[in-house]
Amino acid sequence: MKKILLLTACVCYGGATLLAQALPKWTEKAKKAVFSVVTYNKDNQILNTGNGFYIDENGTAVSDYSLFRGAERAVVVTADGKELPVTCILGANDMYDVVKFQTATDKKNTALTAAPQSPATGETVYLLPYSTQKATTLQSGPVAQKDTITHDSFYYTIGLQTADKNVSCPVMNAAGQVIGLVQKSADPDSKESYVIGIGYATALNINALSGNDRALNSIGIRKGLPSDEAQALVYLYMQATQTDTDSYLALLDQFLQQFPNSSEGYQRRANCYMTFGDEQHNALADTDLKKSLEVAAKKDEAHYSLAKLLYSYNIGRGETPAYANWGWERAAEEIRQALALNDQPLYHQTEGDICFARQQYAEAFTAYSAVNRSELASAASFYAAAKARQLTEGSQLDEVAALMDSAVAQYAKPYGKEAAPYLYERAQVKSEMKKYREAVLDYNDFYDAMLGQVSAEFYITREQAEMQCRMYQQAINDVNKATELEPENAEFWAEKGGVHLRVNQLEEAVNALQQAIRLDGKNAGAHRMLGYCQVQQGNKKEGMANLQKALELGDTVAKDLMEKYK
What is the pLDDT of residue 230? Predict the structure, then answer.
């Protein structure tokens, strides 16, 4: 009779309980994959306890997200009593309350194999609990309902009553393959349970944009990196501006452990080390720079990236001596090596930038010209060539203007804001060439491209060109707008006085110049022009006093005027 009882399944609410003799043969091995989880808060106090299980032999596991929310660290306790730390989080979803993570491991773990097919409705499945005891009991029940989450992920309703202690325990099919993990029930008396499919849990991952994931960020434990190197590099880029330096360095270390042959990874870590600016970190950076060249699959790209990095370093160091051989000559040598291996327009662009920074303007112009003969030609490259040519000894402004024409020609009318800087620069060149009307036209196009959102300084600049080509009313309108925008700028009021004086509007000139002097009593030019206006108005005494003041302030023209009107 006793033997019969031991071999018979004991019926309970919401399913059946299988005793040891009735257990499937896979139970003993499978239970070793199930563990207990303990999470801790920032004060190292226990936050939650629960369950989880391994899904591969390398320590990858799943559990419920609620267990980890707010946790700063966590450990798992395996079926044989071994305690292992959770090393990183590999994915999380708060809607379906599931998390994937990595634990430390000194050997291959016993792991559960995911079922290749989802169970059919009515099929019997088994709840495998966490147990440190030799004897194990299983609960079984039918699949009551199966809902599709994605094309290969499912959510199951099981005809089986479970308790909180069963949350995140695996649910198995008859072949001993895991189909999902138990979720917390809103009704503890329910005769049914809910299971999130294993496909959904295993598919959780870290991607390039996971740095902004609310569920992941609510867990204080270190996050893993995307398994794809390109995605991981984007993730690093996103995190560079969102984390402190120490945390970012830790991420870079983690990245290079995962991708030890990433040339870009070593250069990024070197760049981070270089921001410290001390000998110790510079030495570490130098080691990484050498490693980046050593492991690079494409040597030309590695030399190019290093040249770019050294360009930024030298631009930023000012008068500080360069560390070791990180100076401009090294930057130039790196880009020369890149070009020797692969003559790319992009590399010529960097070559031009390095030469320009070294004030080697003729060489910079040659490099930028190579870019302009390629498919990478752009407004920016034509502009760079124009500036280099302008600063080259013996160059002609006509050449510079032609290059600026090519820069502007990259855009069609009506011009947008992208074209605005080049229109403004061409106007400056045209002014220097004394082609003032053409300059004014460019300033007008710049104004339209900026939708009228310009500074007071712009109005003064355009006004000065307008005065040169006798567009007096336009000049008066512009200088009035400048003083309206910056009424406390003494120079603008002095400029306004000069404009009115030029067209013999003496009263307006006097008012503007007096305002300039009220704002800046040491404005010699304003005193001189005011004195001249007052003499012209017949107010010689005050006029001569202002001329004398201008002379005292160093205005030499005032002396000639005083001699004339003496």
Answer: 94
Q: Spell 411-446 as b/e; 16+ CB within 10 A means b.
A: beeebeeebbbbbbbbbbbbbeeebbebbbbbbebb
Cβ neighbours of residue 455 closer than 8 Å, sequence gap 6 or more: 485
Give the number of C-alpha atoms closer than 13 A to the C-alpha of residue 466, restricted to the C-beta side. Answer: 21
Average pLDDT of the segment spanning 512-538 = 96
Kindly state the tokens that stand for 28: 């003993």
Q: What is the pLDDT of residue 136?
A: 73
Alpha-carbon span 95 to 80, nearest angstrom: 32
CA distances from 17 to 9, 50, 131, 337 (A): 6, 22, 15, 73
pLDDT at 14 over 80: no
Cβ atoms of residues 424 and 445 within 8 Å: no
The alpha carbon of residue 297 and the mean position of all alpha carbons in its chain are separated, in whole angstroms, by: 26
DSSP β-bridge partners for residue 147:
155
Contact call for residues 454 and 435 (beta carbons, < 8 A)? no
Average pLDDT (172-190) is 92
Which of 125-129, 184-188, 407-411 is least confident? 184-188
Distance, CA of 210 to CA of 205 (rounded, Å): 9
* Spatial distance between the Cα atoms of 22 and 144, rounded to a whole number of angstroms: 23
Quote the pTM value: 0.77
CA angle 183, 185, 186 (to 5 degrees): 140
Which ranges in 55-165 belong to alpha helices (H)?
65-68
Single-letter amino acid code for the residue at 95: M
CB-CB neighbours of 167 under 10 Å:
21
Q: What are phi and psi of 180, to 5 degrees?
A: 175, -175
* CA gap 522, 555 in Å, rounded: 11
Q: What are the backbone angles phi and psi of residue 265, rounded to the nearest 5°?
A: -60, -45
Distance between CA atoms of residues 150 and 144, nearest Å = 19
Tokens of 77: 């306790």
Q: Which two tokens stand for residue 266?
A: 């070593």
